[in-house]
Design brief:
Elements: E1 4-7, H1 11-18, E2 25-29, H2 37-44, H3 55-69, H4 71-85, H5 98-104, H6 110-117, E3 123-133, E4 141-147, E5 150-151, E6 163-164, H7 170-173, H8 176-192, E7 199-210, E8 230-240, E9 242-244, E10 247-250, E11 257-262, E12 268-273, E13 280-283, E14 286-288, E15 296-306, H9 308-316, H10 318-321
Antiparallel strand pairs: 1-4, 2-12, 3-4, 3-7, 5-6, 7-15, 8-12, 8-15, 9-14, 10-11, 10-13
């Protein structure tokens, strides 16, 4: 059953006005949103272990390996590979090793086969989508469930390929704290864009990344943009036996840092403009503090995209919006 929630930000709204309203980057805590951070972590933390492994990380690693060491084979099988890609994440193909297995069947070289066999999934992931609407400036947010989408990012690299992740569990996407986080992020985006109100598409991501002695990769793509107007790049839920995982936000692709590196702790998050102001971000690798025990970092992320109707309003305000870059981050 599709549900919708009406979210009045309450204490979180007071926090918004205590800071610079039009800030394009905000570091926040669940406590500042009027939530019990420890209780949220205890409530949501176990759900990450139930997620399927992300098959696309190993698939892309296998693709890069073939492009580098056997480009002829890759070119010959590329069409078949891209058709296979479209089946990953479906009920028929859920293995985190599906991509390397595809290429192992075609590779003759012993060393390449061994390298493909050694690839193991290291990230668990799910997603869910909402629509969010605010009918009057300063009013409550109406957040409606839309289900689990076919996910594709508005970028110019392989992340533009459609991907399918399992849906977040209802205990996650209907959690009061998650709904408040969605409304809070929408309010920040609208305030930063100087819009009276807006409609947004909001995609919720759950991700758990395992640490390894060689470094787990919360951001395997390196310094990047997510392809949305605004994002919660991470709300950290758990840091279990890990070091690292520091977030940095950049003014541009060349690496002029605007914020960080900042090692977020459980209950802490970063909300930022992404494509809207052409900001970039990265997260450093994570390592086990004690290699004899399991180590991982779990987060919630949000992608916030203004709908076409809101974009029309935004175009009319474009001249004023250019001033945002000169405003200091808070």
């Amino acid at each position: 059953m599709v549900r919708s929630e009406v979210i009045d930000l309450g204490r979180a709204r007071r926090m918004l006005f205590r800071q610079a309203r039009a800030s394009a980057v905000k570091v926040f805590s669940l406590e500042e949103l009027g939530l019990d951070g420890d209780a949220v972590v205890r409530r949501l933390g176990p759900s990450f272990m139930d997620l399927r492994f992300d098959p696309y990380d190993t698939a892309l690693a296998a693709e890069r390996l073939l492009r580098r060491h056997d480009p002829g084979l890759y070119r010959a099988a590329e069409g078949e590979w891209l058709r296979f890609w479209q089946t990953m994440g479906t009920k028929e193909i859920t293995s985190g090793n599906a991509g390397p297995a595809f290429w192992r069947e075609r590779v003759v070289d012993t060393d390449l086969r061994a390298a493909l066999a050694a690839m193991k999934p290291y990230r668990r992931r799910s997603c869910f989508q909402f629509s969010a609407r605010q009918q009057r400036s300063g009013g409550p947010w109406w957040v409606q469930e839309k289900g689990s989408p076919v996910f594709a990012q508005a970028v110019s690299d392989v992340r533009a390929r459609p991907r399918r992740f399992e849906s977040c569990a209802p205990v996650v996407y209907r959690d009061d704290a998650v709904c408040i986080l969605v409304a809070f992020a929408c309010q920040v985006a609208v305030s930063a864009a100087d819009l009276p109100c807006a409609d947004l598409r909001v995609t919720l991501h759950q991700m758990l990344t395992y640490a390894s002695p060689n470094g787990g990769s919360p951001a395997p793509e390196g310094r990047h943009q997510d392809g949305s107007d605004f994002i919660v790049s991470a709300l950290v839920v758990e840091r279990n036996n890990v070091v690292g995982g520091a977030s940095t936000i950049y003014y541009d692709r060349s690496g002029h840092a605007a914020l960080g590196p900042l090692e977020l702790q459980p209950g802490d998050g970063i909300l930022q403009a992404d494509m809207y102001l052409d900001l970039w971000h990265d997260v450093s690798p994570i390592y086990p503090r004690d290699e004899s025990h399991e180590a991982y970092r779990s987060i919630l992320g949000l992608d916030l995209d203004f709908t076409s109707a809101t974009r029309n309003v935004r175009t009319e305000l474009a001249r004023g919006l250019k001033l945002l870059r000169s405003r200091s981050f808070r």
